[in-house]
Amino acid sequence: MNSKLDSQRLEEGLEFLLDFYKLRKVTQAKEAVAPVVVQNVDTKEVLFIGYANQTALQYTLEHGIAAFWSTSRDELWVKGATSGDTLQIVEVRVNCEQNSLLYLVKLLGVGACHTKDGTGKTRMSCYYRRISNGQLEFVD
Question: Which residues 6+ apart lie within 8 Å of 29 measured at CB?
Answer without folding.
Answer: 69, 71, 74
